Amino acid sequence: MKCLCKSKNTQIMGKKDNVDIFRCLACQSVWIHPYSYRIDFYIGNEYNLFQQNEKRKSYHERFLHDYEVARNRFSLIRRLIQPSTSIIDVGCANGAFVKFISDMGYLAYGIDPMKQMFPTEQIFQADFTTFTFNRRFDVVTLFDVLEHFPNQIEVITKICKMSQYLIFIDQPNPETMKDINWKHIRPLEHGFLMSKKFLAQEFNRLGFELIISTSQVTDKMSIIFRKSTTPP
């Protein structure tokens, strides 16, 4: 099966929950096939209930946890942005990053199909892939989000058109996967986990250069792209 990077040098790692797990030997991306994306899974409270059934944190505990995570993520871009910077968090979930960035004095927005427990005018409840924005933003962030989309190349193209300066992605790092029992192989949630190499190629093609690559959490990667001063 061909990878999104167009390489045919791929292998099946095994099966999990009746789907095949593939790895690309060329770019090191990992994906499941078939991936049954359901936008309705994220609307309302179904995704929250799913997380609680999986013995993850309650909504309140998760918000407090995500607010502190936002502080760590912010530390990576703090020196790169100005007080007038506008930021939108795509797939903002409970809005913790939006709240933190707002508390820091920045113009912050979010978008997520999930119904907010505490709705604000800063957060749009909508499907990012079909929502039309009437403005651009200095910074676009996607934290544990890109791997959920079924049409990731289109999503990347859209965020590159939206961002005037930085794009910040935080997601599981497929290069750390040893076998199909890796905790980030979640067929109900994750479809395609792009490697840093593949992401760098795609963003470079669209006029963004990789400027920061690090890991704040085991098995995860935080990567930041800046709009290039030279056309792609």
**Approximate shape:** globular
Low-confidence region ranges: none
Radius of gyration: 17 Å
Main sheet: strands, sense, barrel: 7 strands, mixed
* Total E-strand runs: 11
Structural class: alpha/beta
Order of helices and strands: EEEHHEHEEEHEEHEE
Number of helices: 5
Mean pLDDT: 92
Strand content: 25-35%
First-residue to last-residue Cα separation:
29 Å
Question: Strand sequence of the main sheet, in spatial order?
Answer: 6-5-4-7-8-11-10
Query: Percentage of helical residues?
Result: 10-25%
Characterization of this structure:
With 232 residues, the protein is an alpha/beta fold. 24% of the residues lie in helices and 28% in strands. The protein has five helices and eleven strands; from the N terminus they run E-E-E-H-H-E-H-E-E-E-H-E-E-H-E-E. The radius of gyration is 17 Å and the shape is globular.
Short key terms for the protein model shown above:
single chain; 232 residues; alpha/beta; seven-stranded mixed beta sheet; four-stranded antiparallel beta sheet; 11 strands; globular
SSE order and pairing:
Layout: E1 10-16, E2 19-24, E3 30-33, H1 46-53, H2 59-77, E4 86-90, H3 96-103, E5 107-112, E6 123-125, E7 137-143, H4 152-162, E8 163-172, E9 192-193, H5 196-205, E10 208-214, E11 220-227
Parallel strand pairs: 4-5, 4-7, 5-6, 7-8
Antiparallel strand pairs: 1-2, 2-3, 3-9, 8-11, 10-11
Helix pairs in contact: 2-3
